Amino acid sequence: MIGLYPCAVSITITQLRAFLAVVKGGSVTAAADELVVTQPSVSAALAALGRAVGVDLFERSGRGVRLTDAGAAFAPYAQDIVGLLEAGRRAALGAADAAAHSLRIAAVPTAAESFVPALMRAFGQAHPGAELTLVVGNNEEVLARVLSHEDDVAVSGRPPTGDRLIAMPFLQNEIVCITSADDATTTAGPIPSSTLTDRSWLLRERGSGTRAMNERFLADRGLAPRTLTLGSNGAIKQAARAHLGISLISRAAVETELRSGVLGEIRLTDGPEARPWFVVRSAVGPVRPLVEQFSEFARTGADALVPAR
To answer: Which residues are bridge partners to 175 per DSSP?
Structure first.
């Protein structure tokens, strides 16, 4: 059977940028503000893109819009195209020496507040010409930045799903249960988590890998305690000190407080197993040498940057 298809599809980078801005902002108004253009120009770009693709990409939702199933299927490709064009621009600049030496790193707060700065310093010393930058965000945010090619690599405590990102484990991430320093359970020896059902649990914001880990731990053990959501590791540590609750958190985030006695540790008989940290990069497009070098450096040298307990 012979099918006939349009011989040319006129899709422009302007249309794709408008499409992604609406996906991000949830409305034409938000997209126009982000792109610093008029709302009619965004609407026109979306209409032209829909005609070129041949399907409706958005549908009305209250005062905004939301992706149709077809739009959701199209979005990752649009993201890759725009991101790879930007990566190509940087590669072109790199031929003139500018961007070839830049490495943009995104890291979750726990990693950024503990070992990532030391990793960056050691890598910079081994590669004196490298220009390193660091962006901090929760797990969803840093993976999204690598997916959109805004950043070259991410440091995450939870491996991504799907095949658009490649995750390489490189450092053990021990999880501990923290509480106030004067909590009697800190000297009681290992106890089962079921004895903590009357405690409040402190959780990070939605999208955080630490929150997901706590929620998964509680669900796996059939526990449904009271919870309190806080927006950062620092807030969780202060809340634990103030007897507001307990939480599972990476030892890397609280090692200083545990050593100094500012926080206490509840040892659990059924606590979560240590899991690795991951260096994450895009699986789409060519890999720059500096990205490969950083990934290999983390894999072979990160352990030396973490002090032994």
So the answer is: 250
